[in-house]
């Protein structure tokens, strides 16, 4: 007699391991990076800014703390300055942030459900579409999610090493962007709400975290004192709304933008709901009465019912407080808000999806994986087409189809005509225009931003123009040229205006250019 055929076990029946999570995250990184590299001729403004700032390792910059620029510096040392590097860096930090979401989920729920929460939050705009923008918001995703994970462990286990690592990671979060204070405020509110602040031994851990935080952050704090706290004035200026009515309009726009950026998660849950209504716990190719399903019958309730009351409290207070506090404070003070400032406010949103999901873990994880993979591919392909071929076909001028290569060729041609045999090492322009020219000229060409030494610390004072420079400004630049750039342009012996077309069918714009000759102190260099 033939032996009975064993029942088929559905895909993902066994708890997923970290290797599977990493594989999926790397797939996301590759998908977005490759499609953006193919479709874009230039990165986003913030990505270009980081490529320019990566010229040197500084303890701070005029607008922000230094950590994202340090990461970009080491990346450019490895790969140079190709346009795709900005997309890759943004997606790598997005993926790293999702890894810590997974780590947090494994602390209080099953690995199946932790992976579901990670996949759900991965389709929100901040981890997917806007994950292609390497700026201080995206670069902060990993340190915020890691600090939440460590805070959870420290509050649950009260182990000294968790408190110490929490302080280190919080210091790195502050070295990325000062908005980390919003998440720290959420930690403080949870500490009050949980009542654990009354336990004296917790204060020893808090003290250890505070000390390590200060050790990590103190070099930048010293730099701030040496540079008149310039980034803080920039942050204060960014918050100015221009009146109470304008602030309320910004607040409404901010809230609606967040709804739009979270909407892919809602779509994923809606698709899952339709699938579950049709199929329940039945997996393709498996009968409902298979031995596996009989032995692993799920509870009828939704997944959140398996969370402890303390874990629910943690997810709600630590996860929602950043957004709610920001909105309330902005409404009271009348400050301006930008949608991207909320990049780290919804990193726990995937866990709120577990309030809705139910059923056999293995079957539902398979469905969530299929749904979120489909959404990622749809968004990535749609974004690449819209920002690349479609923008060119319709004549739309956007940063994604900026004529960077054409500008660099013009700059190199004018430079060679007036400074033959000497490499072009300095471009004087704003960050966007100068960066797009510099990265396509050579890896050694740097931008003297707005002819300002304060904004270009990679040049020792008085040396930026020593070996000559190419000066550029445009009527399509980000704001008017600075007075220092205009003065340098006016004094240059060779200057002119070129017409450049923005894409095959796009508008033309003026490129004002000038060549500043090398001075007598410049040692003649051989071209590379």
Q: In this structure, how is the largest beta sheet organized?
A: 5 strands, mixed
- Spans of at least 5 consecutive residues with low confidence: 1-9, 287-291
Structure annotation, total helices: 20
Bin the strand percentage.
5-15%
Total domain units = 2
Overall shape: it is globular
* Integer-rounded radius of gyration: 26 Å
Distance linking N and C termini? 79 Å
What number is the mean pLDDT? Answer: 90
Structural class: mainly alpha
Instruction: Trace the largest sheet across and list its strands.
Output: 2-1-3-5-4
Q: H/E series, N to C?
A: HHHHHHHHHHHHHHHHHHEHEEHEE
Helix amount, in percent? 55-70%
Number of strands: 5
Task: List the defining traits of the structure above.
528 residues; mainly alpha; 5 strands
Structural notes for this entry:
This protein folds into two domains: 18-385, no CATH class; 402-516, no CATH class. It is built from 20 helices and five strands. Helices cover 59% and strands 6% of the residues. By secondary structure, it is mainly α. Strands 2-1-3-5-4 form a five-stranded mixed beta sheet, with helices on both faces.
């Amino acid at each position: 007699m033939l032996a009975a055929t064993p029942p088929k076990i559905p895909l993902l029946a066994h708890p997923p391991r970290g290797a599977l999570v990493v594989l999926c995250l790397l797939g996301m990184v590759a998908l977005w990076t490759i499609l953006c590299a193919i479709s874009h001729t230039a990165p986003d403004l913030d990505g270009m800014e980081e490529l320019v700032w990566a010229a040197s390792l500084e303890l701070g910059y005029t607008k922000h703390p230094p950590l994202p620029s340090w990461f970009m510096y080491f990346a450019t040392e490895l790969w140079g300055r190709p346009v795709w590097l900005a997309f890759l860096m943004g997606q790598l930090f997005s993926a790293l942030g999702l890894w810590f979401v997974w780590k947090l989920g494994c602390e209080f729920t099953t690995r199946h459900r932790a992976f579901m929460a990670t996949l759900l939050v991965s389709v929100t705009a901040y981890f997917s579409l806007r994950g292609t923008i390497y700026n201080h918001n995206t670069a902060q995703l990993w340190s915020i999610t890691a600090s939440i994970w460590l805070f959870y462990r420290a509050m649950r286990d009260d182990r000294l090493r968790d408190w110490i690592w929490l302080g280190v990671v919080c210091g790195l979060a502050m070295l990325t962007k000062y908005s980390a204070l919003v998440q720290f405020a959420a930690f403080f509110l949870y500490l009050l709400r949980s009542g654990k602040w009354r336990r004296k031994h917790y204060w020893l851990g808090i003290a250890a975290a505070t000390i390590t935080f200060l050790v990590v952050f103190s070099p930048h704090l010293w730099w701030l004192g040496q540079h008149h706290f310039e980034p803080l004035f920039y942050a204060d200026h960014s918050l100015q709304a221009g009146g109470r009515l304008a602030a309320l309009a910004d607040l409404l726009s901010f809230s609606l933008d967040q709804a739009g950026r979270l909407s892919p998660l809602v779509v994923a849950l809606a698709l899952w709901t339709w699938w579950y209504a049709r199929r329940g716990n039945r997996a393709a190719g498996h009968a409902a009465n298979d031995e596996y399903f009989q032995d692993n019958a799920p509870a009828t309730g939704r997944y959140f019912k398996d969370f402890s009351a303390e874990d629910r409290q943690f997810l709600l207070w630590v996860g929602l407080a950043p957004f709610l506090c920001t909105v309330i404070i902005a409404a009271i003070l009348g400050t301006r808000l930008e949608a991207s400032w909320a990049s780290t406010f919804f990193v726990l949103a995937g866990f709120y999806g577990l309030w809705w999901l139910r059923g056999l873990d293995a079957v539902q994880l398979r469905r969530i994986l299929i749904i979120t993979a489909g959404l990622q591919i749809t968004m990535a392909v749609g974004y690449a087409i819209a920002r690349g071929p479609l923008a060119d076909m319709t004549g739309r001028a956007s940063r994604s189809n900026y004529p960077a290569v054409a500008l660099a060729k013009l700059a190199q041609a004018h430079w060679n005509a007036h400074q033959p045999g000497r490499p072009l090492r300095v471009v004087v322009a704003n960050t966007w225009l100068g960066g797009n020219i510099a990265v396509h000229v050579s890896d050694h060409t740097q931008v003297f931003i707005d002819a300002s030494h304060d904004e270009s610390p990679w040049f020792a004072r008085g040396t930026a123009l020593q070996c000559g420079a190419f000066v550029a400004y445009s009527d399509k630049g980000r704001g008017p040229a600075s007075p220092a750039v205009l003065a340098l342009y006016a004094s240059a012996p060779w200057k002119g205006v070129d017409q450049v077309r923005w894409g095959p069918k796009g508008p033309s714009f003026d490129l004002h250019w000038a060549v500043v000759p090398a001075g007598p102190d410049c040692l003649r260099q051989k071209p590379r």
